[in-house]
Design goal:
Structural class: mainly alpha
Strand content: under 5%
Radius of gyration: 19 Å
Largest sheet: none
Helix content: 55-70%
Order of helices and strands: HHHHHHHHHHHHH
Distance between the termini: 39 Å
Length: about 280
């Protein structure tokens, strides 16, 4: 089976709903499905998190990170306190991060494992930067931007998880002729993971959209975070030719000094998030 056939086969399975997820993903999916209801009782959320020791440990750890714990705030030592501090939306994002990480956990090929780690580094860098851009530039919800950043490469992670079965699936593709299949796969994976429609629409728009002026949408937030992060994706396609004066247009909203501050803060936040998510 050549690369084009492999993409077609995986896309056809995705359309039929026959997505192959690691067994460990199912627990995180249960948490996501429950939290998708904003009226989910706090006690139910706590019991779901406690049923997954890894998720419980990560929830407490990330609640004590600088992203969520103000200077001088008491240390959180239990799941209830952690959920109260970070909120349902960030707990939903944390469960999604577990799903994303698990896609690369069973890879056998060492080269694919390296790609999965590099893709995770890119993902968490974009998520941290998207949150700050939302806060300081575009004005969209910071928690939504963080979540969108965490799941924006979920299609790539899913393809990586299948690459052991389809050698050559992720080889260089200068002509980018597998794009249509990849879009289908990403869309179906997001549907399976209950990604909210506004977030899914923004992620799907990343491939062809350009930033609006002024940038004020979730898509703009993701576009800026992907453009400005120094941590590149190992699955990065050839860069498109940007519209004239694109870089100078960005300077109107983020000057060089502010950009350096944002990049430093995003780097520190990403390191904290990665450490918490590895608990």
């Amino acid at each position: 089976m050549n690369k084009l056939e492999a993409f077609g086969h995986i896309a056809a399975m995705a359309i039929r709903g026959e997505l192959v997820f690691p067994t460990s993903v199912n627990a995180a999916l249960r948490v996501q499905l429950a939290l998708d209801d904003p009226d989910c009782p706090i006690d139910k959320a706590i019991s779901l998190v406690l049923a997954e020791p890894t998720l419980a440990a990560r929830t407490v750890a990330i609640s004590n990170s600088a992203m969520f714990a103000r200077a001088g705030a008491p240390v959180v030592t239990n799941v209830r306190g952690a959920i109260m501090r970070i909120g349902y939306q960030n707990l939903f994002a944390l469960a999604a991060a577990m799903v994303v990480r698990q896609f690369g956990s069973k890879l056998i090929d060492p080269a694919l494992r390296v790609k999965a780690e590099k893709l995770w580094d890119h993902t968490i860098a974009v998520a941290a930067l998207a949150r700050l851009i939302a806060r300081d530039v575009t004005g969209v919800n910071e928690d939504t931007a963080l979540f969108a950043g965490i799941v924006h490469e979920v299609g790539g992670f899913y393809l990586l998880s299948r690459a052991d079965e389809f050698p050559g699936l992720l080889e260089e593709d200068p002509e980018n002729w597998h794009s249509a299949s990849e879009e289908i796969i990403t869309r179906e994976v997001m549907r399976k993971l209950c990604i909210p429609e506004p977030v899914a629409d923004a992620i799907e728009g990343l491939r062809d959209a350009f930033m609006s002026i002024p940038p004020d949408t979730l898509l703009d937030t993701l576009l800026l975070a992907n453009l400005l992060t120094p941590v590149r994706s190992p699955l990065q396609e050839a860069e498109r030719e940007l519209p004239p004066h694109s870089e100078s247009a960005i300077d109107l909203f983020i000057d060089a000094e502010r950009l350096q501050v944002l990049l430093k803060q995003a780097h520190d936040n990403a390191a904290e998030m990665s450490a918490a998510l590895l608990v």
